[in-house]
Design brief:
heterodimer, A: 241 residues, mainly alpha, 0% strand, B: mainly alpha, 10 helices
Amino acid sequence: MSIWELANPVRFMRLSGRVLPYVSVLTIVFLSVGLVWGFFFTPDDFRQGASVKIIYVHVPLAFLAINIYFMMFVTSLIWLIRRHHVSALAAKAAAPIGAFFTLAALISGALWGSTTWGTYWQWDPTLTSFLIMFIFYIGYIALWGSVDEPDKAADLTSILCLIGSVFAILSRYAVNFWSQGIHQGASLSLDKEENISNVFWLPLVTVMTGVFFLFLTLLLIRTRTEIRNRRITALQAREVL
Amino acid sequence: MRALLIRELRLALRSGGGAGLGLAFFLIVVILVPFGVGPDSKILAKIAPGTLWIGALLACLLSLDRLFQADSEDGTLDILALSPLPLELLVAVKAFAHWLTTGLPLVIAAPVLAITLSLPGEVYFWLIASLAAGTPALSFIGAAGAAITVGVRRGGLLLSLLVLPLYIPTLIFGAKTATLAAEGGDPMPGLMLVLGLSLFTLALTPFAAAAALRSHLG
């Protein structure tokens, strides 16, 4: 089966309805195992103490927040090129989840920063980029909310998402030019020696998988809601005629 | 194309066109800053480049929502879209006209206002250079935002929400150029980056704006 067959809303509804229960169960399993493991069965950091455990909330959310924006970029591109409605609706459904994850990453980061850096907020490139990304999410959601015609809304938000992606990357490098950072570099990159120790890494990856499945669950539910909304609107339009 | 440019300039410069309005707004914003932070000339000199840049940015934003809105309301936009001129070029001409009537006056007025903020003398050149290099980017990015929000409910408010975050890189590089000059650093890389950003938006945003306009029209 080609992935493009999912562009048909009926097929998408059938498949997503079948997949949804499994994904929800996976979310619960990975999240509960990962969080319990991380919070109760890993040692405290020798310098940060117990506050290091915020990593199990902060890193997965931040990781997903960036990748949800990337997903919206790809689905927007698919909408503009091939005009698959499910793709546009998936981008619409993903945006509030992404905005919430970004906000949660910022807040958990602020709490973590207050104990380790001694400050809730610092104009550090990483933090600033996340704040900018949050504003991008808000603008994107607001634009969806203010255009009535669904196809036009999908067009405009897709264009905004593409421009936004380019400028988000530009901002990322611009803020490096603007300020020195205190945020640490990547802790999970594949090619570096100085990754965090395995004791923390394994539960962290478990939570990350859990948060990914959480996103997938929410995304499927929200996309299904959007499709049903579309159907109701279409039916109502027919009633009036 | 030249006719369009002349039409745009005429419309903006006539009374009610709003070209002077942006300049007056710029003046007000810059004057408000000393009231907010106090008249200490040392502090004012330190924040002068940033203040002038933010003022220019807001003044630019103020006149943006009229860029396509008026033409869309009276149907001119539909006629322009039917003309042999490609929509991308139309956007570029309109954005250029916007820069001539909004951005350029700001560049010229900035040094005068910089006196009130007691900006050190050697920084003037770099401040003007950075503004001259950066304000086209503001107009061109703004054109894309204006094209997206034309005819949208509460479009003006939405426009600021969409466009201001896009202005961040320009603001950073532009203000940093002048700040570096004030601190005795080498401002050249900053200026080059602002200029690059302007050229980049000049090449990129007309296509995005034209795509948005097509969606509105068709």
